[in-house]
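Changelog note: in this version the structure field was regenerated for every chain. One regenerated record is shown below for reference.
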Amino acid sequence: MADEAHNSDVILRRAKQSLVNNRDFGGRRNSIGRRSAALKREHAARQVKRALATIGGIVFTAIIAGLIIDGIGITGVLVTMLAIFAAVAFFAAVPKLKAPSRESLRGSDVKSLVGRTELWLEQQRPALPAPAVQLIDALGLQLDALGSQLDGLTDNAPAALEVRKLVGDHLPELISTYTSIPRHLRGEGQGGSSPDQHLVDSLGKISAEIDSVTRQLASGAIDNLAIKTRYLDYKYGAGPEGDSAP
Protein backbone atom coordinates (compact mmCIF):
# COMPACT_ATOMS: atom_id res chain seq x y z
CA MET A 1 0.00 0.00 0.00
CA ALA A 2 2.87 2.35 0.82
CA ASP A 3 4.37 1.80 -2.64
CA GLU A 4 0.99 2.36 -4.33
CA ALA A 5 0.46 5.57 -2.39
CA HIS A 6 3.95 6.76 -3.32
CA ASN A 7 3.37 5.95 -7.00
CA SER A 8 0.07 7.80 -6.97
CA ASP A 9 1.71 10.83 -5.38
CA VAL A 10 4.38 10.80 -8.08
CA ILE A 11 1.76 10.57 -10.82
CA LEU A 12 -0.22 13.48 -9.38
CA ARG A 13 2.87 15.65 -8.96
CA ARG A 14 3.81 15.06 -12.58
CA ALA A 15 0.29 15.85 -13.72
CA LYS A 16 0.22 19.08 -11.71
CA GLN A 17 3.63 20.12 -13.02
CA SER A 18 2.58 19.37 -16.59
CA LEU A 19 -0.50 21.55 -16.18
CA VAL A 20 1.50 24.39 -14.67
CA ASN A 21 4.05 24.25 -17.49
CA ASN A 22 1.31 24.16 -20.11
CA ARG A 23 -1.38 26.33 -18.53
CA ASP A 24 -1.83 28.40 -21.69
CA PHE A 25 -0.86 25.61 -24.06
CA GLY A 26 -2.21 26.43 -27.49
CA GLY A 27 -4.91 28.70 -26.03
CA ARG A 28 -6.87 25.67 -24.89
CA ARG A 29 -8.85 27.47 -22.18
CA ASN A 30 -11.57 24.99 -21.18
CA SER A 31 -10.36 22.23 -23.48
CA ILE A 32 -7.94 19.56 -22.31
CA GLY A 33 -6.13 19.46 -25.65
CA ARG A 34 -5.51 21.21 -28.93
CA ARG A 35 -7.49 18.67 -30.92
CA SER A 36 -10.72 19.10 -28.97
CA ALA A 37 -10.24 22.89 -29.00
CA ALA A 38 -9.84 22.77 -32.79
CA LEU A 39 -13.05 20.74 -33.16
CA LYS A 40 -14.90 23.35 -31.09
CA ARG A 41 -13.52 26.18 -33.20
CA GLU A 42 -14.57 24.40 -36.39
CA HIS A 43 -18.06 23.90 -34.97
CA ALA A 44 -18.27 27.59 -33.99
CA ALA A 45 -17.07 28.64 -37.44
CA ARG A 46 -19.78 26.54 -39.08
CA GLN A 47 -22.39 28.14 -36.85
CA VAL A 48 -21.17 31.63 -37.78
CA LYS A 49 -21.33 30.75 -41.48
CA ARG A 50 -24.87 29.44 -41.09
CA ALA A 51 -25.88 32.58 -39.21
CA LEU A 52 -24.39 34.86 -41.87
CA ALA A 53 -26.05 32.87 -44.63
CA THR A 54 -29.41 33.14 -42.87
CA ILE A 55 -29.01 36.88 -42.30
CA GLY A 56 -27.99 37.31 -45.92
CA GLY A 57 -31.11 35.45 -47.00
CA ILE A 58 -33.31 37.67 -44.84
CA VAL A 59 -31.76 40.86 -46.24
CA PHE A 60 -31.97 39.55 -49.81
CA THR A 61 -35.64 38.66 -49.31
CA ALA A 62 -36.33 42.14 -47.93
CA ILE A 63 -34.60 43.77 -50.93
CA ILE A 64 -36.55 41.68 -53.43
CA ALA A 65 -39.81 42.40 -51.61
CA GLY A 66 -39.00 46.11 -51.65
CA LEU A 67 -38.36 46.06 -55.39
CA ILE A 68 -41.58 44.20 -56.06
CA ILE A 69 -43.86 46.35 -53.93
CA ASP A 70 -41.87 49.57 -54.35
CA GLY A 71 -40.47 49.73 -50.83
CA ILE A 72 -41.18 47.80 -47.64
CA GLY A 73 -41.74 50.82 -45.43
CA ILE A 74 -40.93 51.22 -41.77
CA THR A 75 -42.93 48.11 -40.92
CA GLY A 76 -40.93 46.02 -43.37
CA VAL A 77 -37.67 47.39 -41.98
CA LEU A 78 -38.74 46.51 -38.44
CA VAL A 79 -39.81 43.02 -39.49
CA THR A 80 -36.47 42.52 -41.23
CA MET A 81 -34.55 43.67 -38.17
CA LEU A 82 -36.59 41.41 -35.91
CA ALA A 83 -35.94 38.48 -38.24
CA ILE A 84 -32.21 39.20 -38.12
CA PHE A 85 -32.24 39.43 -34.32
CA ALA A 86 -34.21 36.16 -34.14
CA ALA A 87 -31.67 34.45 -36.39
CA VAL A 88 -28.76 35.69 -34.26
CA ALA A 89 -30.52 34.58 -31.06
CA PHE A 90 -31.27 31.17 -32.54
CA PHE A 91 -27.70 30.43 -33.58
CA ALA A 92 -26.38 31.81 -30.29
CA ALA A 93 -28.64 29.40 -28.43
CA VAL A 94 -27.63 26.36 -30.47
CA PRO A 95 -25.83 23.90 -28.17
CA LYS A 96 -22.08 23.61 -28.21
CA LEU A 97 -20.39 20.79 -30.04
CA LYS A 98 -21.87 17.55 -28.75
CA ALA A 99 -19.37 15.11 -27.30
CA PRO A 100 -19.18 11.75 -29.08
CA SER A 101 -20.58 8.64 -27.45
CA ARG A 102 -18.27 6.00 -26.07
CA GLU A 103 -19.44 3.57 -28.74
CA SER A 104 -18.66 5.99 -31.57
CA LEU A 105 -15.06 6.36 -30.37
CA ARG A 106 -14.37 2.76 -31.34
CA GLY A 107 -15.25 3.48 -34.95
CA SER A 108 -13.36 6.77 -35.21
CA ASP A 109 -10.72 7.05 -37.90
CA VAL A 110 -7.18 7.46 -36.65
CA LYS A 111 -6.97 11.15 -37.60
CA SER A 112 -10.06 12.16 -35.62
CA LEU A 113 -9.61 9.72 -32.73
CA VAL A 114 -7.56 12.01 -30.48
CA GLY A 115 -9.83 15.06 -30.76
CA ARG A 116 -13.00 13.02 -30.28
CA THR A 117 -11.52 11.20 -27.29
CA GLU A 118 -10.53 14.54 -25.74
CA LEU A 119 -14.11 15.79 -26.16
CA TRP A 120 -15.42 12.63 -24.52
CA LEU A 121 -12.98 12.95 -21.61
CA GLU A 122 -14.00 16.58 -21.06
CA GLN A 123 -17.59 15.44 -20.69
CA GLN A 124 -16.58 12.90 -18.01
CA ARG A 125 -14.60 15.30 -15.82
CA PRO A 126 -17.53 16.42 -13.58
CA ALA A 127 -18.11 12.80 -12.49
CA LEU A 128 -14.48 12.13 -11.53
CA PRO A 129 -12.60 12.77 -8.27
CA ALA A 130 -10.20 15.72 -8.23
CA PRO A 131 -6.99 13.66 -8.57
CA ALA A 132 -8.41 11.87 -11.62
CA VAL A 133 -9.47 15.21 -13.17
CA GLN A 134 -5.87 16.42 -12.91
CA LEU A 135 -4.70 13.28 -14.69
CA ILE A 136 -7.35 13.67 -17.39
CA ASP A 137 -6.18 17.23 -18.04
CA ALA A 138 -2.59 16.01 -18.29
CA LEU A 139 -3.74 13.23 -20.62
CA GLY A 140 -5.00 15.91 -22.99
CA LEU A 141 -1.42 17.09 -23.50
CA GLN A 142 -0.24 13.54 -24.06
CA LEU A 143 -3.02 12.83 -26.53
CA ASP A 144 -2.06 15.93 -28.53
CA ALA A 145 1.50 14.64 -28.77
CA LEU A 146 0.22 11.20 -29.76
CA GLY A 147 -2.08 12.72 -32.37
CA SER A 148 0.87 14.41 -34.07
CA GLN A 149 2.45 10.99 -34.54
CA LEU A 150 -0.77 9.41 -35.79
CA ASP A 151 -1.33 11.95 -38.57
CA GLY A 152 0.95 10.07 -40.92
CA LEU A 153 -0.65 6.66 -40.36
CA THR A 154 -3.42 4.95 -42.28
CA ASP A 155 -6.41 3.55 -40.42
CA ASN A 156 -5.32 -0.04 -41.09
CA ALA A 157 -1.71 0.36 -40.01
CA PRO A 158 -0.88 -2.04 -37.13
CA ALA A 159 0.19 0.86 -34.92
CA ALA A 160 -3.04 2.74 -35.64
CA LEU A 161 -5.16 -0.30 -34.77
CA GLU A 162 -3.37 -0.76 -31.46
CA VAL A 163 -3.62 2.92 -30.57
CA ARG A 164 -7.33 2.93 -31.38
CA LYS A 165 -7.73 -0.01 -29.00
CA LEU A 166 -5.87 1.79 -26.22
CA VAL A 167 -7.29 5.31 -26.64
CA GLY A 168 -10.70 4.61 -28.17
CA ASP A 169 -11.60 1.47 -26.24
CA HIS A 170 -9.70 0.71 -23.03
CA LEU A 171 -9.43 4.29 -21.73
CA PRO A 172 -13.16 5.07 -22.16
CA GLU A 173 -14.06 1.64 -20.79
CA LEU A 174 -12.05 2.28 -17.63
CA ILE A 175 -13.79 5.58 -16.95
CA SER A 176 -17.25 4.31 -17.90
CA THR A 177 -16.89 1.39 -15.51
CA TYR A 178 -15.87 3.75 -12.71
CA THR A 179 -18.82 6.10 -13.31
CA SER A 180 -21.20 3.13 -13.24
CA ILE A 181 -20.32 2.64 -9.56
CA PRO A 182 -22.76 4.49 -7.23
CA ARG A 183 -21.21 7.74 -6.00
CA HIS A 184 -21.47 6.84 -2.32
CA LEU A 185 -19.41 3.69 -2.89
CA ARG A 186 -16.58 5.19 -4.92
CA GLY A 187 -14.60 6.39 -1.92
CA GLU A 188 -15.08 3.27 0.17
CA GLY A 189 -12.07 1.03 0.55
CA GLN A 190 -12.26 -2.67 -0.19
CA GLY A 191 -9.25 -4.90 -0.09
CA GLY A 192 -7.12 -1.97 1.04
CA SER A 193 -8.08 0.47 -1.72
CA SER A 194 -11.12 2.33 -3.05
CA PRO A 195 -12.52 2.68 -6.58
CA ASP A 196 -11.32 6.30 -6.51
CA GLN A 197 -7.77 5.16 -5.85
CA HIS A 198 -8.00 2.35 -8.41
CA LEU A 199 -9.12 4.87 -11.03
CA VAL A 200 -6.18 7.18 -10.34
CA ASP A 201 -3.71 4.30 -10.39
CA SER A 202 -5.12 2.88 -13.64
CA LEU A 203 -5.18 6.28 -15.34
CA GLY A 204 -1.53 6.64 -14.36
CA LYS A 205 -0.74 3.31 -16.04
CA ILE A 206 -2.57 4.30 -19.21
CA SER A 207 -0.82 7.68 -19.15
CA ALA A 208 2.53 5.90 -19.03
CA GLU A 209 1.44 3.63 -21.89
CA ILE A 210 0.40 6.56 -24.08
CA ASP A 211 3.74 8.21 -23.42
CA SER A 212 5.58 5.00 -24.32
CA VAL A 213 3.63 4.60 -27.56
CA THR A 214 4.21 8.23 -28.53
CA ARG A 215 7.94 7.82 -28.01
CA GLN A 216 8.02 4.66 -30.10
CA LEU A 217 6.14 6.31 -32.94
CA ALA A 218 8.35 9.39 -32.74
CA SER A 219 11.46 7.22 -33.00
CA GLY A 220 10.12 5.65 -36.20
CA ALA A 221 9.58 2.20 -34.71
CA ILE A 222 6.15 1.84 -36.31
CA ASP A 223 6.55 -1.64 -37.73
CA ASN A 224 7.85 -2.98 -34.44
CA LEU A 225 5.36 -1.14 -32.24
CA ALA A 226 4.20 -3.40 -29.46
CA ILE A 227 1.92 -1.75 -26.96
CA LYS A 228 2.43 -3.23 -23.53
CA THR A 229 -0.72 -4.36 -21.77
CA ARG A 230 0.30 -4.04 -18.14
CA TYR A 231 -2.72 -1.82 -17.53
CA LEU A 232 -4.96 -4.79 -18.34
CA ASP A 233 -3.85 -6.32 -15.05
CA TYR A 234 -5.58 -3.41 -13.38
CA LYS A 235 -8.59 -3.68 -15.63
CA TYR A 236 -9.23 -7.36 -14.91
CA GLY A 237 -7.59 -7.43 -11.50
CA ALA A 238 -8.22 -4.97 -8.71
CA GLY A 239 -9.07 -1.91 -10.79
CA PRO A 240 -12.44 -0.19 -11.12
CA GLU A 241 -13.41 -2.91 -13.59
CA GLY A 242 -12.08 -5.74 -11.48
CA ASP A 243 -13.79 -8.05 -9.02
CA SER A 244 -12.88 -6.00 -5.98
CA ALA A 245 -14.73 -2.87 -7.12
CA PRO A 246 -18.10 -2.38 -5.40
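Spot check on this record: The chain is about 70% helix and 0% strand. The mean pLDDT is 77.
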